[in-house]
Amino acid sequence: MEDSSAVIAKALEQVGPRLKQLRAHRGVTLSALAESTGISKSTLSRLETGQRRASLELLLPLAQAYRVPLDDLVGAPEVGDPRVRLKASKRNGRTVLPLTRQPGGVQAWKIVVPVSNSTPRLRSHDGYEWLYVLSGHMRLVVGDRDLVLKAGEVAEFDTHLPHWFGSDGTQPAEVLSLFGPQGERVHARARS
């Protein structure tokens, strides 16, 4: 069994490559990352190449910019407890619970939409989204389509189209969202 200082040293060596891989996977430039974090391009470059040691002052803004737990950036060693402790947050008046912990690729979320979240505010961005209504009624506006989905119904759409989802105004909704930031789509396969 490795001693703890060797495990820590090994984890720290991987921070730079992990940061570079995450940035490349997300398709973010050093300039854009510098702008969103307030960290200079040269510091970001030195972090990625291992010429600069990572500190909390640098890692916290990066974790926030990438919307990943700090543990994912540093590759914190696994602990004995296998339970996943998900942390809900509030976004746009909704309770959002991340179900995936790895940065990049398809992201899964459980979203609780209160009745009060019923005024459409359409937006568009890169990606592809798949929504499954777990409970309640969800109103979905995509382009010029305005739909109400009930528990058990699914919708998927290209997020380049102006879109919004929320409550239909009669009851809260619980929604499972799968989002592919690079336009990845959900592929369901039936067993033969």
Automatic annotation (TrEMBL):
Short name of any one Pfam family annotated for the protein: Cupin_2
Q: Which domain of life is it from?
A: Bacteria
Matching entries from Gene3D superfamilies are given as:
Jelly Rolls, lambda repressor-like DNA-binding domains
List the PROSITE patterns.
Answer: HTH_CROC1
Where does the HTH cro/C1-type domain start and stop, copy by copy?
Answer: 19-73
The protein's UniProt keywords, in alphabetical order, are:
DNA-binding
Q: What is this protein called?
A: XRE family transcriptional regulator
